[in-house]
Amino acid sequence: MTSRVLLDLRPLTQSPAFARLWVGSTLGGLGGQLTLTAVMLHMYHLTGSTFAVSMIAVAGLLPLIAAGLYGGMLADWFDRRAVALVSASATWLSTALLAVLAWTGAVDAAWLYALSIVNAAANSIVSATKMAITPRLVGAALIPAAAALNGITVGLMVMVGPALGGLLVALFGYPVTYTLDVILMLSLFLGLWTLPRLRPEGAAVRPGLSALADGWRFLRRAPNIRLQFVLDIVAMTFGNPLALFPAIGAVVLGGGEITTGLLVAANAVGAFASSLFSGRISSYRRHGRGIELAIRAFGIATTAFGLVLVAAAFLPDDGAGPRVGLIALAMLCLAATGAADNISSIYRQTMLQQAVPDAIRGRLQGVFIVVVTGGPRLGALYAGGLATLAAAAPGGGTWLPPLLGGMLVIAITTALVRRAPRFRAYDAAAPVL
């Protein structure tokens, strides 16, 4: 019974290459979360503006899209190990420069924007390439288990990283926080360096417009893959109020940087727990139905988070310090969103990696990364823009984006899936694009 419920560890025990890559990705991702949290807090410290914080994500959207799409083409033409190593080097160098600037006191808003863009673009190539590599390392049968292990990675790095990032910034400042990321990311190079050469299987297509067009033609013939992309964009655009967390911590709930870190970490606690007990999740074959139910649950939890913020905005505050009870309720809602999003991600990754041929997997993984990382950036624009328009309302209007957004996620998901019976009927035992 335990083996059916708990996380399947066979990808780690049966594939040493995957195990090394997984450990390196986990430690490197932890460092990346330290920097992400520190950059958000740094921008808010410099500008005092929630909109400026949200624009960190928005500014990198177009470069991220371009890098994700082109990186996917590179992964379908060159040795995928080499592509991942080069792009990881760019990420490391941008973080190292940020640390140097912080130590010398030369950081301003422009540097934060510029280096965040470089980091996001290079990371999109690393992520797309690693995901295209995974099926070759573990085999088709263990793809769901590998996806659940990646959920553990995300859960660990986001659960520990933001809370630790907020604590490090509060106690030691921004230079120490950025420097720790520079050190932790070195482990990713070990995982990538020890991989074998991994050239794409099948007919390779030289990077360029023809390769991009070939990928889009494939996507037009794959309605189930298309719909999972659309559903994730909907969820991340309307249900991801991350850009509001510094203001929520500073103004609405109290506790400042520590509360901001705890709110981000709560989401990861849910993701971690759902991966830890993912035995039955990984064995469920109706992936389309699983995605639908998970995203609906995500919308419900996001709406509940908005209601907690409504209570914080409109109920009397004695001003005695952080509002511990409301912080706990907010964290519970965010943990539920993390669990639901992770379950959706397990099914989406598995569907994509099992059904798509290796020769085009890099390009489709590039689109996947654009969706996964681009959606939250649209979400930052939605949340920051709507909160700015509602700034005169109690609580600075921070409750409005998650409250409205959660309801939109539920309504749009229900409407889209209702029109796609093939998606609901998708069976992993007989993948249909």
TrEMBL record:
It is found in: Cell inner membrane. The chain crosses the membrane at residues 21-44, 50-70, 82-103, 109-126, 138-160, 172-193, 229-252, 258-281, 293-314, 326-347, 367-393, 399-417. Keywords: Cell membrane, Membrane, Transmembrane, Transmembrane helix, Transport. It comes from the Bacteria. Its main location: membrane. The keyword Transmembrane applies. InterPro entries: MFS_dom, MFS_trans_sf, TM_effector. Residues 180-433 form the Major facilitator superfamily (MFS) profile domain. It is a multi-pass membrane protein. This is MFS transporter. The lineage of its organism: Bacteria, Bacillati, Actinomycetota, Actinomycetes, Micrococcales.
